[in-house]
Write a structure and sequence with these properties.
The protein is mostly beta strands. The chain has two helices and eleven strands, in the order βββββαββββββα. The longest helix has 15 residues. It is globular, with a radius of gyration of 15 Å. The mean pLDDT is 88.
C-alpha cells in the first residue's frame, strides 16, 4: 500500500489517559526525561525547564493542562521537543512529557474522523478525533504556546 498525496506523516504521542496526534514536522526531537528546573509560581501543568541545545525549554504535562490526569508517571517517560509556531524569539521550542516513545504513523484522508460528543474540547485541544477507531486528541499548539508564554511571564 503506497502513500497518496493526501496522506500525512504524523506522530502518536501517549500521555496519561490519552493519545495526541501531531504532524511529524512539528517534532524536533525525542529525549529521555530528566527532572526539570522548577519555575516558581508556574501552574502545575508547567513542570519546569530543561536544557536542550542551548535553550531552556519549558516542559509541560499535557495531561494536567487538559484535565486528563492530575499526576503523570515520570519513570521511563520521554520528552518530545515541539517546534513552536508563534515566531516568538524566546520560545522557538517547548517540550511535552510523554509516556513512552512516540510512534510514527501515516494518516490517510479517510483515516481520521472527527469525534464530536457535543462537549467543548479540553484546554489545549483543538479537536477530538478517531484514528483507526481509537480516540486521539489533536492539540492546539498555538494556544498551548500562548499559555506557556503567559505562565512564564507571570512567573517571572
Amino acid at each position: 500500500m503506497s502513500a497518496t498525496q493526501a496522506d500525512i506523516r504524523g506522530v502518536l504521542i501517549a500521555v496519561t489517559e490519552g493519545r495526541l496526534l501531531l504532524p511529524n514536522a512539528s517534532v524536533a526531537e525525542v529525549i529521555t526525561f530528566a527532572e526539570p528546573e522548577a519555575v516558581p509560581g508556574a501552574p502545575d501543568w508547567l513542570l519546569g525547564r530543561i536544557p536542550w541545545q542551548g535553550w531552556r525549554l519549558p516542559v509541560l504535562s499535557f495531561a494536567r493542562l487538559a484535565g486528563l490526569a492530575g499526576q503523570e508517571r515520570e519513570y521511563g517517560a520521554k520528552v518530545v521537543v515541539i517546534k513552536a509556531l508563534g515566531g516568538h524569539p524566546k520560545l522557538p521550542y517547548f517540550a511535552l512529557l510523554t509516556q513512552g516513545f512516540p510512534r510514527l504513523v501515516t494518516v490517510s484522508e479517510t483515516g481520521l474522523l472527527v469525534s464530536d460528543d457535543g462537549r467543548p474540547p479540553p484546554l489545549g485541544v483543538r479537536m477530538r478525533t478517531l484514528y483507526k477507531d481509537e480516540p486521539v486528541l489533536i492539540p492546539d499548539l498555538d494556544s498551548i504556546e500562548l499559555l506557556i508564554r503567559d505562565a512564564l511571564d507571570r512567573a517571572a
